[in-house]
Specification:
Strand content of chain B: 25-35%
CATH class of the largest domain in chain B: Alpha Beta
Radius of gyration of chain B: 19 Å
Strand order of the largest sheet of chain B: 2-1-3-6-7
Number of strands of chain A: 14
Shape of chain A: rod-shaped
Number of helices of chain B: 8
Strand content of chain A: 15-25%
Structural class of chain B: alpha/beta
Shape of chain B: elongated
Number of domains of chain A: 3
Number of domains of chain B: 2
Largest sheet of chain B: 5 strands, parallel
Structural class of chain A: alpha+beta
Distance between the termini of chain B: 28 Å
Oligomer: heterodimer
Helix content of chain B: 40-55%
CATH architecture of the largest domain in chain B: 3-Layer(aba) Sandwich
Number of strands of chain B: 13
CATH topology of the largest domain in chain B: Rossmann fold
Largest interface: A-B, 55 and 45 residues
Number of helices of chain A: 9
Distance between the termini of chain A: 41 Å
CATH architecture of the largest domain in chain A: 2-Layer Sandwich
CATH class of the largest domain in chain A: Alpha Beta
Order of helices and strands of chain B: EHEHEEEHEHEHEEEEHHHEE
Helix content of chain A: 40-55%
Chain lengths: ~450, ~220
């Protein structure tokens, strides 16, 4: 029993979509990080410039540190957002001007701008501070200028960029999913084409599959062809085996029969002759059964994948009659053929075997010096080959029983038969969309009248 | 008639040869295809009986190979009863086929049918005094008068013709005339002999009843 696991197509699509999702999230987070970084740097630069501008105005005047707060220093901060700006200038930890409660700056080397983030008045702020030595009266004084700004505006820009990035990522993801599905389908197409090519074939078509296939599928195709080859060899071997077996069984039987027949001509005692006749009968019986069993097997095999050749039923009848004529002549039975061209479609070998089996019965059961007629008529889209003999007829059994396998009529004891003949004929006709009709001849002889009905083409 | 039998089973071959010899035919026997080729190179035959499965190959391949330069009619002996096999044999140039085991009367009937169909130079005649019995055509000829016989009449007359002056028992006639899948009474023989007697009377052949023993053919000296 085949266990179906998840389809390769779906798996491939899901895998590709997963990768796309991962990439989307990664790219979104990268863009968001970069945006935050970029806005941060912009703010830092402006804060640094602002602090530097203020620090530049520091000078010593009459022993005290002086400074101016240039308008530009704050105007440039206003240019990037409407955030609140704080500042503080300290000289040796003493606040000269600005917000005294601002968080203390990060200590750094002289002239170097230091940045820090802190909370001030319930809001996160970014601060830039720069220290400078100013020569005042008593000596150098370390003056630190700190400029701070809330981060609302910067955050908003970053958020906006991040949102934009998110929209792009989702769009990218959706496109990627669609592409994945398409890719999965496209890459599986050669596989589906091979499957279709195999299933289009009839059951007996075991030729290797020659077709263009991607290199990846070559191993599969090769394995498939090797399997077909093995299958074909195995079928051929069993056919050879059947032929060989038939040969090995029937050749000794033929020898026995031939010897018995010669003995029959040389012995004179009636009891001995009778014994020899019984031997011959038994040989005939077994070889006939074996033959019809093989025929029956062949019919079963061939009807599974029926050939649909254009045939003329009259031709088939003529051929079969020609082959049976010597057998009929031995009993002085005349075969009278009344055929018209009749186009039908089917397997010539099977149809001939059906006709032969019915005709064989007629010749076997008909009395000597009589006529068996084979007539073809057309009616209602069907061809009807009627084989009528002047034999004992079908008896009063239900006619359907006679078609059953190994079933023989009650009035046939003295004649060699296997009971498979009509079964074979009926099977062949059924496979061709026709049927076998059994009736009693209407010509007054009481003989059998077997009709092979086939659809006309 | 000169036959070539290609059959590797010695016992079957011997039986066939013996039986055909009883009917007055000369039979050469080959057990392999190469032997058969040697025979065909050395002599000419009226008919070839060819087994399909031989030690050195398939009889049907031999048929295909030699069909182009071989005018002799061929009857294939096959053990297979599969229809495809029979058709195959005919397609490959056999004139007829017969499945093993076969009834000798049927083999003869088929040989005769093939020889008649092929016409050609094959002649198989027996002189019964002034009457020429042509076994292939199934005719009796006396002067300008020709009588056509039916299949069983030919076979019955052949038995008498091959044993002129001998008494043939009913049971001998029966074995010669009927295949064994039909139950025949000795009365039937009487009926057939009676019928043949009436038919051939017109050309001056007579069948005499030897009471209690059988029948014997009499040939008019004239």
């Amino acid at each position: 029993m085949m266990v179906v696991t998840r389809s390769i197509g779906k798996r491939l699509t899901l895998l590709l979509a997963g990768v796309a999702a991962l990439l989307s999230v990664l790219s979104w987070s990268m863009v968001t990080g970069l945006a935050r970084e970029a806005t941060q740097r912009t703010q830092d630069n402006v804060l640094a410039a602002s602090a530097t501008t203020i620090a530049e105005t520091l000078r010593s005047e009459q022993g005290a540190v002086r400074l101016e707060l240039p308008y530009a220093a704050f105007a440039m901060l206003g240019a990037i957002s409407q955030d609140r700006v704080f500042y503080r200038v300290t000289a040796d930890d003493e606040t000269l001007t600005g917000y005294e409660d601002m968080p203390p700056p990060v200590p750094g080397r002289q002239g170097q701008v230091m940045f820090d983030t802190a909370n001030y008045r319930d809001a996160p702020i970014r601060m830039a501070s720069i220290s400078r030595l100013v020569l005042a009266g008593d000596g150098p004084v370390l003056v630190t200028v700190t400029v701070g700004q809330t981060r609302d505006g910067v955050g908003a820009i970053a958020a906006e960029l991040s949102q934009l990035a998110a929209i792009f990522s989702v769009a990218f993801f959706l496109v990627a999913v669609a592409l994945s599905a398409f890719v999965a389908q496209t890459s599986l197409r050669p596989l589906n084409e091979i499957a279709a090519a195999v299933s289009r074939r009839g059951p007996s078509d075991l030729r290797p599959l020659y077709r263009e296939a991607p290199a990846d599928l070559a191993p599969l195709l090769n394995a498939l062809n090797r399997l077909m080859d093995r299958l074909q060899q195995s079928i051929r071997r069993s056919e050879d085996f059947i032929a060989e077996a038939a040969h090995r069984i029937r050749t000794p039987l033929a020898t026995v029969r031939a010897q018995a027949e010669i003995a029959l001509r040389t012995v004179s005692g009636e009891p001995e002759k009778d014994r020899l006749r019984r031997i011959i009968r038994a040989v005939d019986e077994s070889s006939r059964s074996a033959g019809q069993l093989l025929d029956h097997a062949t019919v079963a095999y061939r009807t599974e994948d029926l050939a649909r050749d254009r045939l003329d039923l009259a031709d088939l009848v003529a051929q079969t009659v020609a082959a049976m004529e010597p057998t009929a002549a031995m009993r002085d039975i005349h075969l009278q053929v009344d055929g018209v061209p009749t186009p039908i479609s089917g397997d010539a070998v099977l149809l001939e075997s059906a006709i032969r089996n019915v005709l064989d019965n007629a010749i076997k059961y008909a009395p000597e010096d009589t006529t068996v007629t084979l007539g073809i008529t057309h009616a209602a889209g069907a061809a009807r080959l009627t084989i009528t003999d002047q034999g004992p007829g079908l008896g009063d059994e239900p006619v359907d029983d006679l078609i059953e396998r190994f079933k023989r009529g009650k009035n046939t004891e003295s004649i060699v038969g296997s009971g498979l003949g009509l079964t074979i004929a009926a099977d062949v006709l059924r496979a061709h969309g026709g049927r076998l009709d059994l009736a009693t001849a209407t010509n007054g002889s009481g003989g059998a009248c077997v009709s092979l009905v086939l659809p006309l083409v | 008639m000169r036959y070539l039998l290609v059959e590797d089973n010695i016992e079957l071959a011997e039986a066939v040869i013996k039986r055909l010899a009883l009917d007055g035919h000369a039979v050469d026997h080959a057990t392999t295809l190469s032997e058969a080729e040697d025979c065909l190179a050395a002599a000419s035959y009226d008919l070839i009986l060819l087994d399909v499965m031989l030690p050195d190959g398939d009889g049907r391949d031999f048929l295909v190979r030699s069909r182009a330069h071989l005018a002799t009619p061929v009857i294939v002996l096959t053990a297979r009863s599969q229809v495809s096999d029979r058709v195959g044999a005919l397609d490959q140039g056999a004139d007829d086929y017969i499945t093993k085991p076969f009834d000798f009367s049927e083999l003869e009937a088929r040989c005769r049918a093939v020889l008649r169909r092929r016409g050609g130079s094959a002649r198989n005649e027996i002189a019964l005094g002034p009457v020429i019995f042509d076994l292939l055509a199934g005719t009796l000829q006396r002067g300008t008068e020709t009588l056509e016989l039916r299949s069983r009449e030919i076979r019955l007359l052949e038995v008498f013709a091959r044993h002129p002056g001998q008494i043939m028992s009913k049971s001998q006639l029966m074995d010669r005339l009927f295949s064994y899948d039909t139950a025949v009474t000795e009365n039937a023989i009487e009926v057939y002999v009676g019928r043949l007697r009436r038919r051939i009377d017109s050309v001056g052949l007579r069948i005499e009843t030897v009471r209690g023993l059988g029948y014997r053919i009499e040939i008019d000296a004239a």
